[in-house]
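Rotation project, supervised by the postdoc (A.L.). Task for the rotation student: set up a whole-complex structure prediction and record inputs and outputs verbatim in this book. Inputs entered:
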Amino acid sequence: MLLKKVKIRLSILLTLSAISVFLIFLVFKVLEDNVLYFYSPSEIKNTNDIDLNKKIRVGGMVKKGSIQSNETEIKFVVTDLSNEIIVSYSGTVPALFAEGKGVVAEGKLRDKKFFIAKRILAKHDENYMPPELRGNSNKDAK
Amino acid sequence: MIKFLNPSYVFKLSGKLLNLFKAFLLPIVVVGLIFSLFLSPEDYIQGDTVRIMYIHVPSAWISLLSFAAISFFCILNFLFKLKNVTLIYKSLAPIGLTFNIIAIVTGSIWGQPTWGTWWAWDARLTSMLVLMFFYITFIFSYKFINNPDRSIKACTLISVLGLINLIIIKYSVEWWSTLHQPSSISLTRETTVHFSMLIPLGLMLFALIMYVAVIFLMKYRIETIRIKRKGIRKL
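Outputs recorded:
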């Protein structure tokens, strides 16, 4: 029992919404890769046309026991549990950078297996807990 | 329904509610702050930085909810020409904008020690910034467009686009790879925040909602008085 005017306005509104959803969908379709903040090692492995001069970001988990550091550089392995990539970096790392934790490295690829980072960001996961629970929760998480 | 929408009736009722919320506000803020600053534990990896979450997360939720609310009322006004609801979204929009900015700023302060950067152009952060621009254009479109009909049309357009953006904000961390972590609290999945940290989070959410209610009612009453002085016909 809607008035005719209301019906007209409702149809305008629905048309408007449909058009907006469609346009926004198109925008994201065009942007596609740019919406991703980082690539996983698997995505890099599966891409054929990789521009080695383009600045990109690689993200994943720092593989346990993979961090090697000397005076000038730090090397570690970023993994998404199916593929891996070696990251080399010289500079200071964020406080939360640690083995088994998320990381995003910004820089350039030398080849598909080796990444030279200019900047390291630590990625925090969605878990929040007091220190005394750390031991048992890590077992649950991984 | 008619009685409920009558401005003088709403004015009286809002006065009573305002006093009730005012009485709640201070105690709940004090208790919330004591819990979030002193009684809750440090995080196992972030340390004290986790305390920023107790203001960041409720602010972000409030900014999303209030945009959903102003869009709802704006569309209601567009469809049924219920002029009384303009007061609701005019009073709510600046509050939502404020909390949006609080969420962005506190997130940035948290990001620096945690991620190692103040800002990242990932999907979550960018869509929150876009929400801020939606709030600003929404406020502008009722403040600077004097013709009420046009103003409602502009507000409706922004509401529709903004509602789509809200969905993008919500799912940004699941659809795309982002620096921002996925939601810790969800209706469908298990909460990944420890109970001792959920208490201050819940208290602060309640405190901020009380604060929003108080500011909203004050603003609503002021807008009502302003219209009454102009004469009800101009409403």
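Student's summary: The beta strands of chain A are 56-62, 68-69, 74-79, 84-89, 102-111, 114-123.
Supervisor addendum: Chain A touches chain B at residues 6, 9-10, 13, 16-17, 20-21, 24, 35-40, 59, 93-98, 101, 104, 119-131, 133-134 (CB under 8 Å).
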